[in-house]
Each structure stands twice: as C-alpha cells, then as structure tokens.
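#random but structural
TW: two for the price of one
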Amino acid sequence: MEDLIRTALAVAEAAGVRYADVRVVSPQRTLHLGVRDGQAQALTDARAVGLGVRVRTDRAWGFAGSSELNRAAARASARLAIRLARAAGATAPERLKVTNEPPARGGKYATSFKRDPFEVPREEIMRILTEAEARLHVGREIKSGVASVQAWDETKWFASTEGASFSSRIVHIGAGVSATAVRGSNVQRRSAPTSFGGDFAQAGFEFVESLGLADRAPAVGREALALLDAPSCPTGPTTLLLGSDQLALQVHESVGHAVELDRIFGSEAGYAGTSWIPSSQIGSLRYGSEAMNIVADATEPGGLGTFGWDDEGVPGRRIPIVERGTLVGVLSSRESAAELGLARSGGTMRADGADRAPLVRMTNIDLLPGDLSLDELLSGIASGVYLETNRSWSIDDKRLNFQFGTEVGRRIMRGELGELVRNPIYSGMGPEFWSSLDAVGDRSTWHLWGVPNCGKGQPGQVARVSHGAPVARFRNVAVRGG
C-alpha cells in the first residue's frame, strides 16, 4: 500500500502541483444480516478496495480514483487528477487558500473491540436475530417483525506531499428490532433501541450482545399493539419533553448539517441544500437559549464520528459549536477554514470510500447534559407531551423549518407520564425552537446514538456519525396528531 502511495505522489510531484494526497482503502467491508417475519431478509457480506488521488493547483482541486491496486492504476489516477485540477483552474476566479496544518507522521489508529464482527459465525448472528424477531410477535395484529445487524470495516492508508502519513482500521456495528401492528387503516410501528436499524457504535460484536434484542422484543411488540388503541396526540402549542433518541435526530438535522461550513458558503448545495446561517455571524449568532451547549467531538470513545485523522490528515478534535446559545464554531476543512479566516481546520473532511473525494462531514455532534434528572424535568410540566423514537422527518433546504414525527408519545399531566398517544408530530423553526429549550437532563438521561445513514454530496456519499443527547424540555412547541 505504501508503494502505491509513493508511486502516485511521485507523479504529482513531478508534475509540479502545489499539493497531493493519496488514500488507499483495502479492504472496505460491509455486513448486513436481517430477519423479517421468520425469514432471512438480508444476507450481505461485501468487500471493496480502491485508491483515490487528490491534487491541488494554485486555483483548483482535482480527484480521481481506481478500484485496481497496482502501480499503473496509481499513476493513471494521479495523472487524471492533475488534468482535472488544471482544467478546473482555467476558469477559477481566484487562488485557493488552505490552512497550515502540522503533518501527521506515521500515526496508527484502530478501533478497540473484543469480538471482530466479521469473524463471528454467521449462524450465531442469525440465531440471535431469529430469536429476537420471533419474540416481537406477541399478538395477531403484529403483522411484521424485523431484526437486523449491520457492520462496516475500513482499513486505510494515507499520505501527502506535505509529509503527512497515517493508517487506520475503523469498525462500526449496530443492531435493532421493530414491530408493525395493523388494524384496518391504523398502522403503528415500535422500534428498539431506536428506529432505522437500531443503535450503532464504533465497537465489536460485543456491542450487539449488550443490546439484548431478544429481551427487548416482547415489550416492543406489546407497545406497538397498545398504540393501535391509543388516542391521537392532542393538537396545539404545548410543553414538549423530547427523549434522547429523538433529540439526537433534532441535533443532526437542525444543527449538525446547518453548521457545515461548505453549506454555509453555498459550495455544497446540491444534496439537501445549504444553511440559514450567515458566515458573518459565526461567533455572535444567537442559536438558542442559554441551556444549549453543543460540541463536535471526533475523539469521543465509541462514536461513529471518531477517528485519528480526517481525510486531509488533520487530527480529530473536540470543537465547541454552541456555547450558552451562541454559535461559536463550525465544521470545516482546510480550504473552508482558510476562507473564513480560521488558523486551523476543524478536521472534519471524510470520504465514503476511496472512490469519493472528501467532504465536510459531521463528527460526533453532542448536546451536552445539564443537571436535572428525568423526574425533575417532569416536575416542571403541568401539561405536555413526551415524544421519542423518530418515525419521519422533513426539513427545508436551509436546515431551518422542520417537521418531525415520532413513533410514540405520552401525555404529561401534573409532572407525571400518562397514557400513550399515537402519531405525534411536532414542528418549528430552528432558532425559535432552540430558544424554547427550557431545561436539559443530566448525564443519567444522556446517550450516544449512532446514525449510520447520513447522506451528502453529488455523487452521493453516506457517512456514519453519532450524537450524544439527554432528555430535554421545550416550551410552547407546535404539536399535533398525524
């Protein structure tokens, strides 16, 4: 791998470009096993390899890659990247600027785990899933059950003409169950640990074992059935208590994407839009109430957005994003940070494999916990609703106006959780919603949730990120029954 990297860098240096870096990924593996209604739903074990070469001239970037790992492919990819950069530079309006970064030299990063997911017998995994899925079926109106495991394994080598080099092996894994209950046109779904495949972490198979899917399954099925008889969520402005998993999605959509600096500058607009944040107000913009404190942390143990170095060779960092409601930081690359006038990149450039150029991506974006227990959060609510587990989401292309639905809600009366309500939906506008943040739960209510399917870019790329979130209370939020 190092020989391939040296070969590509030698071509770039001989051509006299300002900068070049090379990533070799071998292998990149994906595992997906699933059971639906007693039958195998997914049996996927895929492997890919490749190299990507990125070069920079005075005015433009060029990128090319290959799925072949040999010297000829390395040379050809470097030459194509150089031609593309020079062609783009012919019409570029101004010179590129990038931050100066101390190069990583020979570093190694590896996920710590006890059981390699790709070495666990498939029969063992399928037994776990089959048992969990069977236990979802607690009544005739449970019409469908799903249990699944997904894992990813990426081994990468990186080097640049600035002398940076590192290697890494990162393993992600997660699992979950869901039950769908149907009565006529009334369809209700309940999932655990959360929806869209469950919970995910940077870990080994022991993480799946810790989830106890079979033990969770009967309660999931019973709650799906109970939702069939639950009244519709009441409509009107109310006090909203958001569960940790739903608040993690709220952070992802209305904060994480909005503070990606390429979106703010408008250089990334094709997939899911730009951002409502003016670049001139970074450091002064009022994003929410004083209870709102958010960080981006690429060093967080177990996070899907945790790594040693990003795909520009910049070390993973912890960066304040919102402090006491004020926007103080953003997610950036070497180029976008320099454009903003920052001395250092945020270290957030990541690519979905060797065949994609890196983009500004979320790391682990966390809402920091407060100091109130769940009981203390509830005690401050005379009347309201508690919502958890995302069912649907919609947000505009500036990451501003949103509407989210959840699988389940509960009435709150006089500080206590009451009856289930079905089809709850809440909506708002980002800064107004976050300004209504009234109180934040303590560490006992906080959890780091893995999100395996964050999309961005054209051609599209999928990143895996994590969000730490507590339970939190919001006042005067628009809520209705779907």
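TW: number two ↓
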Amino acid sequence: MLGEPLAVEFLVGGDWQPAVLLGWRHEPDGTCRVHVQAVVSGLHRTSWMQLADLRLPQTAPLVPRPLEPRTRPDLLLPGAERARRTPTPLPPLPVPRSLQPDTSRA
C-alpha cells in the first residue's frame, strides 16, 4: 500500500485496541486476512488477522454547535444611522401576455 496506514481497531479480551492496517491478502478459501500493527506493552507488534475482527475507529458523536452568523447585520457602526440610504424603487413588472389585450388582426 502507498500512503499513510489506515487507523483501525481490533478486539482483544472484550476491548477494542487501536492499530494500523498495513496490508491485506486474499486467501484461497475466499476470506481476506489483514496485516496490522499495534502497540502491545510498549512494543510495536505486527500480525495477520481476519478482516472480520477489525473495525474503523469509533469516535464519540460530535454535538453540533449552534450556528452563528458570520456578520452582524444588526450591529450598526457609529454614525451609520445618518448614513443609511433609502433603497431605490424597482421598476414595475411587465404585464403578462395573457393579460395584455389582443391586438392581432383577424
């Protein structure tokens, strides 16, 4: 594999332990074995194990923070109330064709 090893977890004694996935191979019986590296008692150990014995690391779900506006439109700068402009009126909308009088000649 090229690039960074993939973080995984494997089950030992009822607890999930962190490890990294180094590679994998397909066995003749159709199963997949993975080569993992883990720190056991302070030493790096590598081993082949069944793919079914691994999982991706589980993280606690993040609680989304309430969104705050990026700008403060309600905050006026000093002197802004006198500099506030009145909006220019928009031009009138055209009359739809269905409401225009029929000017065609028969």
